[in-house]
Amino acid sequence: MIRGGTGYNVIPDSSTMAGTYRAFSKKSFYALRKRIEEVIRGQAAVHRCSAEIDFFGKEHPTIPPTINDDRIFEQVQQVSSMIVGRENTKLTPTFMGSEDFAFYLEKVHPILEYVPAKPMI
């Protein structure tokens, strides 16, 4: 989202840009964050402007990537297969969901698993 000015043909004195960014690993997440800052500062300098960058800090903490522990994941997959059968356990592709459960995953080693439900026919 970009917000800057309210009139046609008028250069605003300031503008605000907001959005989200996500990654599949902590390393790429923080590299992306650094690159976002570099691009913003670089573009501001090219146009002889200044830029203030705020990733929300303590008020709205940045949610880290949700990454399951591989060892625990293997155990859960084995148990799930024993309970519902291997043919009924499906691995979904990696996706870019933003999940505050990631804060727990940084402290302990559970996994985030979606358990679907469907009517028995």
Automatic annotation (TrEMBL):
Signal peptide feature range: none
Classification via Gene3D superfamilies: 3.30.70.360, Zn peptidases
Domain of life: Eukaryota
Listed InterPro entries: Amidohydrolase, Bact_exopeptidase_dim_dom, Peptidase_M20
UniProt cross-references to PANTHER family, sorted A to Z: PEPTIDASE M20 DIMERISATION DOMAIN-CONTAINING PROTEIN (PTHR11014:SF147), PEPTIDASE M20 FAMILY MEMBER (PTHR11014)
Protein name: Peptidase M20 dimerisation domain-containing protein
Organism for this UniProt entry: Ilex paraguariensis
